[in-house]
Amino acid sequence: MSIRTNIERIRKTIPQGVEYVVVSKYRSIDELQQVYDAGMRIFAESRPAELNAKAGALPGDIQWHFIGHLQTNKLKLVLPHCALIHSVDSERLLRAIEDFCAARDMRVNVLMEVHIASEDSKQGFSIAEAFDFFAARRDEAFPHVAFCGLMGMATNTPDREAVALEFESLHALFARIKACRGDLAAFRELSMGMSQDYDIAIEHGATMVRIGSASFE
Ligand SMILES: *Cc1c(COP(=O)(O)O)cnc(C)c1O
User: Fold this and answer.
1) Which residue minimizes the CA distance to atom 13 of ligand 1?
2) How far is CA 127 from CA 85, 99, 114, 148, in A?
3) Residue minimizing CA distance to atom 12 of ligand 1
4) Which of 12, 58, 94, 191 could be bridged to 151 by S-S, CB 3.0 to 4.6 A?
């Protein structure tokens, strides 16, 4: 099937109010142009140099999101082009982003990545760490960072019940943070769900789904 056909098929399954983010990592400029021509404007990359090169080669009205592990020495490749970082996984990284943005008088939108999967390899804050961070108002130490919500990845398993429980745990955390921090005006996004499980994520309150392979294959 063509990229346009895939995208149109997926779009029909995504309700109003949920953002379809096309994960374009490893795909060619030509494939991304086809995604663009199918009407999509939010693309997500996981490698700094790749995001930087693609942002320079494709139309200027694309919103670039970053979803990979971000090393502090790569901020200059990502932050000037990036509408949203989904994958802030440590306070050390937040500190580096804050310093980078303060020096340039800019602000960046981020989601906190929360570890919900049972696999050890996934990065992120624990549920308790993420809640404490906001309950203790530690976000106030980062005035150049806009905290826009949470991101998580479920375990890669065919057990859809297990995946649903993980998404629900992130959704519950999201609701608890919003309830205790009504002052966080931008805190609205819950990024969860990929090609295999985005339907489950939407059932559990996702506001953004990140769909790579199913968009292209
Ligand atoms: C690659 C990736 C995706 C997309 O995965 P697919 O299974 O191809 O849809 C989503 N989120 C993150 C963080 C990724 O690294």
Assistant:
1) 67
2) 19, 26, 6, 17
3) 67
4) 191
